[in-house]
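Marked as duplicate of an earlier ticket. Keeping the data here for the record.
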Amino acid sequence: MEKIMLVIAGSSPALQATQFATYLAGMTHSKLIGYFFEYELYADKPEIKTILGFPFVESIVAEDLPELAEKKKTINDHRRKFENTCSEKGIFSSSSYLEWPVLPTLITDSRFADVIIVDATFCHLSDKQDELSSFLQHLLANAQCPVIITPTGFSSMEEVIFLYDSSPSAVFAIKQFCYLFPELDEARATVVNTNKKTISSEEKKQINNWLCRHFGYTDFLDINDENEPVLLDYLLKKQNPIIIMGADKRSFISRLFRHSYTELMLKTLAYPVFITHH
C-alpha cells in the first residue's frame, strides 16, 4: 500500500482517527494525506433561492460569519499538529484545507489512493437520526477505493472478521483487504456467513484454502442475515477486531447504524469497519 487519505471534518482534533491513521500508515509504510474542512451552511457568494415559489437573494455568505475565520484558524492548528505527529513517528505525510463542497475533490483523489479513513463521527452528521449522514453515504457510494470508518477508541487489530454472503463483492472485499494489509497475517481470520443458507463444505474449503495463504488461523460462523441483534451480540464479545464487508452489504450498514444501534456500535464496540465495492 502506498497512499492513505484521512478525512477530518470540523474544528475538533479527531485524535482517535489520527491515531488509527498513523497506526496503519506506520504499519504499511504508506504516505498519509490529511484532508481538513469545515461544514458550511452558507455559500461563498450570494445565491438566488426560492420560498413559496418566489425568488430571493441569500445575501449572507460564509465570509460574513466571524466564527468561520476562527474555525479555519483552529483547523490549521490541527493540521500542523497532524503533520508534527506524523513527522515524530517517521511517517511521510502532507495535509490541505478544503473549501466546501469537498466531496468532488475527495472522490477524484480517491482514484489514486489505496484507502480512505473517515472518523466515526461522520455517522452522526444527519438530519435524521436513523440514517447515515448524506455526506458519508455519498462518499461510500462513490469512493474509488475502500473506505474505513474509524472507531471512537482503538488499540490494535487482533482479529479480521469478514461478513460473507457468497456474493462476488464479498469475495472481492476479502481479496482487497488481504492485498492491502499483508502485515496482518498473524491476526485471526473469521468468516461470518450472513446468508440464510449454510455455506457448503466445498465453498468453505475454497475460502479456507485462499485465506490460509494470508492468515495463520481461520474460522467460520453462521449468522442469519436478518438477525442483526445476534450479530451485534457476537461482535460485543470480540476484542480488537476489524470488520470487512462488500458493497452489497452497504444497505446492511445503514440498518446497523440506525439510532437504536448507533451508540452500541460506535461507542461500545469501538472497532473499525472496512467497506469496498466491486
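See parent ticket for discussion. DSSP finds nine helices and twelve strands in the chain.
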